[in-house]
Design brief:
The chain is built from eleven helices and nine strands. By secondary structure, the chain is α/β, with parallel strands linked by helices. The protein starts with 9 loop residues before the first helix and ends with a helix. Mean pLDDT is about 95; it is low at about 5-10. It comes from Nostoc cycadae WK-1. Keywords: Carbohydrate metabolism, Lyase. Homotrimer.
Length: about 230
Amino acid sequence: MMCHAGSEEFNALFQVPARMSNQDWLSKLRKNRAIAVIRASKIELGEQMAMAVASGGMQLIEITWNSDRAAELIAKLRMKLPDCLIGTGTLFNVQQLQDAIASGAQFLFSPHIDLEMIAAAVTKEVPIIPGALTPTEIVTAWQQGASCVKVFPVQALGGASYIKSLQAPLGHIPLIPTGGVTLKNAPEFIQAGAVAVGLSSELFPKKLVIAENWQAIAQHASNLIQNLA
């Protein structure tokens, strides 16, 4: 079902920060299993990409902070897609994180571990998912308060087999692999123990975006959700 457009006024929507408990966040991840990662050179394009995957049934949408007018796009999508969670990623410092929260971002991804960023997100009660690769990095992020950990780039260490090998010692830490996850192998990551996966270019092939074939992209999203159910 497509996330429907809402009638809330902008100011009413953002009178309170987008707080969410880790338990609620993990529940959303286990229900949806996939996050659409959008990196858009134009805000209009980013909006169309988000609407396309939402119409295909995806409810977790990440707008990378290096997208065109990312803060404005996040705020707009919060209004248009109230049944979805709209977050951001590619955050590199506390200032960007605070700006993202102010824009209405409901979850926060970073490609690395920054203890100040984790602490700031925990204080604001907005889920933060730092990027890590080795067991030491994963445990460090978790112990500092990360809501879960992004394993990136997962393909560099063997893909789904790496996630599976982490389960015995680190099975208590929810992992979201990205970087090498495809429409075809996404189920393997869930079966290996990942709580969810993140996909970008696989959901948004350049040819389809250039052609503005949003129906085909919606179908990609729908197929992915069905395969992960």
